[in-house]
Task: structure prediction
Amino acid sequence: MGTEALIEFDLVEAGYGTLTILQKASLSVREGLITLLTGANGAGKSTALKALFGVIRPTSGDIRLGGKSIVGHSPRKMIDLGMAYVPQDRSLFPSLSVFHNLELGGIMLPRKLIRPRIEEVLERFPRLRERVNSQASTLSGGERKQLEIARALLLRPSILLIDEPSIGLSPKIVGEVFDLLGKLATDGKTILLVEQNVRSALKVAHHVYGMEIGRIVIDMPADRVMDDPAFTRLLLGGHVPEAA
Result:
């Protein structure tokens, strides 16, 4: 576990229309580990996830999964390849119950598999089981985040992309969410995590990439990063030279 680069960005440029956000970004995500991507707002973190999942297409460079280029693949194709994406913006159906939100998450599964898979994920989320018939709009922020992650897990992905899971959550719930991500990695999931709550994320992350205006400027193991002056400057909004 953790020895092979499962995901590779090779000098990737990507953005929206004429606006380029990622600036020749190169990084790798090792199998079975949690890789943290952090940096200020607008640094390009969410854009990297969207480029990887096929929401946007890079304008240059290459993205590889298991050594094979996936540039141009659709999100549906990425799901077929074992990837799930939990975006930052809320993606639940607030007027539907927890159960029906989960059911919609499994819409691509054969009908006979949906209920067993829902049972499977509810084993991991006992609070959602308690509220399985409640409308999603009545859930707390932490419960909603659990539901978003549970829905992503219905398809049994091997890779989980998750964008800013701690936003709007209390410190206690943030800890629970990161504990869950740590357990998923222990179970063999590969996780690419975008997060600005660095201290909490570092409790479970194995490797860290720091971004500044679309470029990778930090690339080091998570257990060393807090001792690095360049990382401290990045957190405080100071300029950091691009990583070699």
Observations:
- The beta strands are 5-16, 19-30, 34-39, 60-65, 68-69, 83-86, 159-163, 190-194, 207-212, 215-221.
- The two ends are 26 Å apart (CA to CA).
- The chain has a mean pLDDT of 91.
- The longest strand covers residues 5-16.
